[in-house]
């Protein structure tokens, strides 16, 4: 169980351990997690590149304790890139993944979930003490996320209808939304935009949430109060704050069964029914990418990404 091995990935040496250790009740092991992240790397890496990565680690598997990790841990290999980010709580030295070996190294620490902000380090304002999240020199976001969090009683079909309504509203503003499952119960929309101060993106996201709640009060809610969410979809606009992050497409989730945050086609969204499972196993995800390629590629920023309009209020 605690056997250690030394291997090479793309010429880089890694020490791996406990590959047979189950991380999920189904028996899905750490070795299988490492293999998944290495195998999915071709489509995953472009979405992690130049992003400050937060990991959710499950040292004893998903039935044990977990914790968010932002700082690069002691002993981080020299080949792993890090980026300093100045926050109100002090400077954080984030990992910024660039290669397959980085993913294998992270998975060896049982970093099951990978989360990234809406801004990239290449669009952030750099200072002597790193990237600054607060003040006039805040990062420039290159995407807007519309996180549709289903309340009690909301089915996948309900979430699909909500996603279509939200995407239609965005389309009327000249913004193209791309859907993915969160890997759990909800759906998330991502809109590539030209670099925009994160506070402006947050203000727009908040106004969109309020607009959807006013226009469709029996479907959406814009308040964070959990007792107000029954039978409604909470539009979690706070995911757009510079200090917040969202699960990355193709990331595994630390749930009771292995499930991946999955880019979807709008045809698949429209086909969701009340009893349709919205979870994709890592093995199925690898097969899916073989057949469909990277559906999330359209969310990557380009010079043609549209400007974000002002708030809807």
From TrEMBL:
PANTHER family per UniProt: BIFUNCTIONAL NON-HOMOLOGOUS END JOINING PROTEIN LIGD
Entry-linked Pfam families: LigD_Prim-Pol
InterPro entries: LigD_pol_dom, NHEJ_LigD
Stated name of the protein: DNA ligase D polymerase domain-containing protein
Gene3D superfamilies: DNA primase, PRIM domain
All residue ranges annotated as the DNA ligase D polymerase domain in the record: 29-296
């Amino acid at each position: 169980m605690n056997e250690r091995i030394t291997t090479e990935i793309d010429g880089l040496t890694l020490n791996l351990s406990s590959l047979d250790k189950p991380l999920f009740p189904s028996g899905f092991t750490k070795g299988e997690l490492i293999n998944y992240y290495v195998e999915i790397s071709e489509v995953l890496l472009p979405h992690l590149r130049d992003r400050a990565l937060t990991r959710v680690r499950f040292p004893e598997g998903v039935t044990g304790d977990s914790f968010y990790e932002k700082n690069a841990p002691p002993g981080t290999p020299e080949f792993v890139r890090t980026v300093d980010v100045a926050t109100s709580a002090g400077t954080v030295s984030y990992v910024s993944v660039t290669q397959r070996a980085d993913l294998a190294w992270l998975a060896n620490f049982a970093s099951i979930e990978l989360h990234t902000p809406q801004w990239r380090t290449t669009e952030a304002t750099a200072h002597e003490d790193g990237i600054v999240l607060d003040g006039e020199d805040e990062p420039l976001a290159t995407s807007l996320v519309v996180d549709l969090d289903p309340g009690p009683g909301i089915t996948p079909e309900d979430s699909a209808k909500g996603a279509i309504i939200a995407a239609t509203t965005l389309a009327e503003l000249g913004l193209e939304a791309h859907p993915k499952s969160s890997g759990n119960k909800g759906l998330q929309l991502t809109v590539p935009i030209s670099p925009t101060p994160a506070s402006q993106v947050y203000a727009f996201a908040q106004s969109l949430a309020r607009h959807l709640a006013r226009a469709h009060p029996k479907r959406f809610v814009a308040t964070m109060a959990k007792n107000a969410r029954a039978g409604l979809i909470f539009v979690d606009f706070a995911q757009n704050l510079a200090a917040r992050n969202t699960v990355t497409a193709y990331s595994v989730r630390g749930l009771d069964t292995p499930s991946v945050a999955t880019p979807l086609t709008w045809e698949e969204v429209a086909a969701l029914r009340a009893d349709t499972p919205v979870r994709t196993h890592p093995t199925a995800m690898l097969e899916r990418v073989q057949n469909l390629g990277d559906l999330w590629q359209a969310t990557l920023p380009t010079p043609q990404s549209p400007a974000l309009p002002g708030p809807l209020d």
